[in-house]
Amino acid sequence: MIKDAVVTYIDLSSIIKKYQHAAVLKAIKNIFQHDVSKELNVYCYKLKEAFVRVRPFDSGYSQDDIKLLILHELLALEHIQGLLFSFGDMLHSSTAYGEFKVTNNTMSGSAIESSVKLIAKQKFNSRILIGTDIVNLLKSETSDFEIKKIAKHVKSMLIRSESGLYCLDQFKIFESKVGIEFSQNQESTESVQEAV
């Protein structure tokens, strides 16, 4: 059965190459499963060199419901990145939303396809990539106070990568988690602030 979902593809290839000790690698992999539970309706699928985080939603969800689901996933990714800093690692992921299904251990649908295509465009530097459709949804109007508050926070961290893709600024996440400011962040946020 096809469901709609918010899907995050997390590339583990560089982390697997870096950590040969099984216990350390297991500890790091556990970080990627932050807030995964049936009660929260958040699922995680393990692939050979990736994790796929999935937040399904029903066709009856409003635009605000979908937006809130996406924002909670982006907050989870921010938290994951904060934990990864203690290992000196950067999260390499891409988030999209749309159709998603699993049949005979095979994932398909526009959400996973978009996530995989997005991360393939950013091969060399680890980024928390966000699809243009999500950015456009974050730009849309809402009267919900919680959504406005979280969206403002997320948009303040939104930048363009060197490949021109939307992503969360990992240096700003580091600043917020550690309390250290980077006075010379090389990536400009001007174009994104105008776009958002």
Report what the structure shows.
The protein has 196 residues and is of the alpha+beta class. A hairpin with a 2-residue loop joins β4 (93-103) and β5. Strands 1, 2, 3, 4, 5, 6, 7 and 8 form an 8-stranded mixed beta sheet that branches. It contains 8 helices and 8 strands, in the order βααββαββαβααββαα.
Order of helices and strands: EHHEEHEEHEHHEEHH
Low-confidence stretches: 180-196
SS-based class: alpha+beta
The counted number of beta strands is 8
Terminal-residue CA separation: 35 Å
Indicate the percent of residues in helices.
40-55%
DSSP strand content: 15-25%
General shape:
globular
Profile the largest sheet. 8 strands, mixed
The DSSP helix count reads: 8
